[in-house]
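Q: Please design a sequence for this.
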């Protein structure tokens, strides 16, 4: 990935040779118009943009020849009033389009410093490339962006955006890495490396420690693989912090389904099943790097789900460290098994809020598609996340945990089953119900369960379709921005 320098200027700049200039276009009463821009576009006064194929639909892009060897990129702004997230998407789309230019100037109609900051974020996010495995690397030429805006953000805000995008890109790198190169041990090593110098403590629990700590879920999922499981714990504890946020992430470095084996097509893409763990780990590190005044503990539950002679059998019963027993009826519902350990450990600390992030169910994709995160939870968990996602601009939708679905987890022999085989009813919600059983109480007698939010990112964690906005193909790094927002709001 070429390094990208971003500069913000609050005035027009002269057009120069070989530079691409981005401006927005809109339709006003069926007439195509260039929207307010600090990009100098007088050369286009007499040009019929429509006849050249320009469209004002959101993110539609048209390249035009500008004066003095410059290039214009006219980008459709759609027909709604633009919010910050849309500015983020527009800037991202422009950067993806203009990778073959070294220098790009963006002049979108931002009215606030927040919108300008969104343009910067979108540009930085879209610049990500993953070339690790290409013997011939086709990297972008783009290495310098100027954002033109009348209201510009403070340098500290731009630095913060850069820190967050760096964290997102580290998540993307880990998720995109092939599963033969990224297994539990390596996951832990990479996290330790990223944590260096950030003022956090990192603990890695190996099989021996996991056994001593009775982390039954991680052990039972991990035992089918020759690559042993890990629990990675990152703690950021700034002096004077009044609130404690606990994060739990699903870190299945590859999900074959185990003995309840997935069919070939269903297994494809399952290297992304560790996205939740990578997300909470790098979110904690970003929060530490930003020196936010909140204590954060992240638990990454990392294992490889493989079928083998040592793998967990359907019908096996495991006992968690809090005494709960689970009959494993479906070894492909492994995410909830490892997450239960993380939720128990997090609950023991009685934090103010627990957020878990997991590519938990195919049902989340069925219900919400591939761009929206499913949110479930108890107490303030729901509202805190809805608000944070409103601020970060990430798509999130609150789902219920209907009481009657809990019965689908009843077991004849143990406290619960992990999944009712063959019954896909409310799959995402049943997953939520299972996790909820492992969220502790401040005081069990008073039934005041710890505030908790569960984010099922099975849809948006990876983009298998065409690139859009600031999201390219592959890992998206979704929800990290929202987690940072939550930390800010606490
Ligand atoms: N990692 C998958 C979730 C998943 C499935 C993501 C398909 C994307 C596409 C998870 O471990 C899983 O296999 N979930 C099962 C749960 C079921 C057995 C209750 C699923 O969704 O099919
Ligand atoms: Mg599975
Ligand atoms: Zn899985």
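A: Design:
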């Amino acid at each position: 990935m070429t390094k990208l320098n971003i500069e913000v200027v609050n005035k027009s700049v002269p057009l120069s040779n070989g530079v691409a200039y981005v401006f927005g276009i809109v339709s006003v009463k069926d007439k195509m118009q260039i929207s307010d821009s600090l990009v100098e576009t007088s050369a286009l006064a007499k040009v019929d943009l429509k006849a050249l194929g320009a469209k004002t639909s959101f993110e539609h892009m048209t390249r035009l020849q500008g004066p003095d060897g410059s290039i214009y990129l006219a980008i459709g702004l759609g027909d709604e009033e633009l919010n910050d997230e849309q500015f983020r998407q527009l800037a991202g789309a422009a950067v993806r389009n203009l990778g073959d230019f070294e220098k790009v100037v963006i002049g979108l109609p931002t009215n606030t410093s927040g919108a300008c900051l969104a343009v910067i974020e979108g540009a930085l996010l879209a610049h990500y490339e993953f070339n690790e495995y290409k013997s011939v690397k086709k990297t972008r030429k783009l290495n310098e962006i100027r954002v033109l805006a009348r209201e510009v953000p403070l340098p500290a805000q731009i630095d913060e955006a850069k820190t967050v995008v760096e964290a997102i890109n580290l998540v993307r790198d880990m998720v995109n890495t092939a599963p033969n190169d990224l297994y539990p041990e390596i996951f832990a090593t990479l996290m330790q490396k990223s944590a260096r110098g950030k003022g956090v403590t990192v603990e890695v629990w190996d099989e021996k420690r996991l056994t001593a700590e009775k982390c039954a879920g991680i052990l039972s999922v991990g035992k089918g693989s020759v690559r042993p499981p890990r629990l990675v714990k990152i703690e950021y504890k700034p002096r004077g912090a009044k609130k404690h946020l606990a994060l739990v992430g699903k870190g299945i470095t590859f999900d074959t389904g185990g003995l309840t084996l997935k069919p070939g097509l269903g297994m494809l893409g399952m290297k992304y099943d560790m996205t939740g763990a990578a997300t909470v780990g790098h979110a904690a590190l970003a929060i530490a790097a930003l020196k936010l005044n909140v204590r954060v503990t992240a638990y990454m539950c990392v294992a490889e789900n493989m079928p083998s002679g040592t793998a967990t059998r359907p019908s096996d019963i495991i006992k968690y460290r809090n005494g709960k027993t689970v009959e494993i009826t479906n070894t492909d519902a492994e995410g909830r098994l490892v997450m239960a350990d993380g939720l128990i450990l997090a609950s023991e600390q009685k934090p103010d809020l627990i957020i878990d992030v997991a590519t938990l169910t195919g049902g989340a994709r069925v219900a919400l598609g591939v761009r929206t995160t499913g949110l479930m939870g108890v107490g303030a968990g729901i509202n805190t996340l809805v608000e944070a996602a409103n601020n970060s601009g990430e798509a999130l939708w609150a789902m219920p945990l209907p009481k009657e679905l809990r019965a689908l987890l009843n077991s004849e022999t143990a406290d619960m089953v992990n999944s009712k085989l063959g019954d896909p009813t409310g799959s995402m919600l049943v997953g939520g119900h299972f996790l909820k059983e492992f969220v502790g109480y401040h005081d069990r007698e008073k039934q005041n369960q710890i505030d908790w939010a569960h984010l099922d990112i099975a849809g948006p964690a990876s983009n298998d379709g065409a690139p859009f906005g600031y999201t390219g193909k592959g890992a998206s790094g979704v929800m990290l921005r929202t987690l940072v927002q939550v930390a800010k709001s606490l």
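Q: Thanks. Anything notable?
A: Residues 5-153 form a domain with the Leucine Aminopeptidase, subunit E; domain 1 fold (CATH 3.40.220.10). The radius of gyration is 24 Å.
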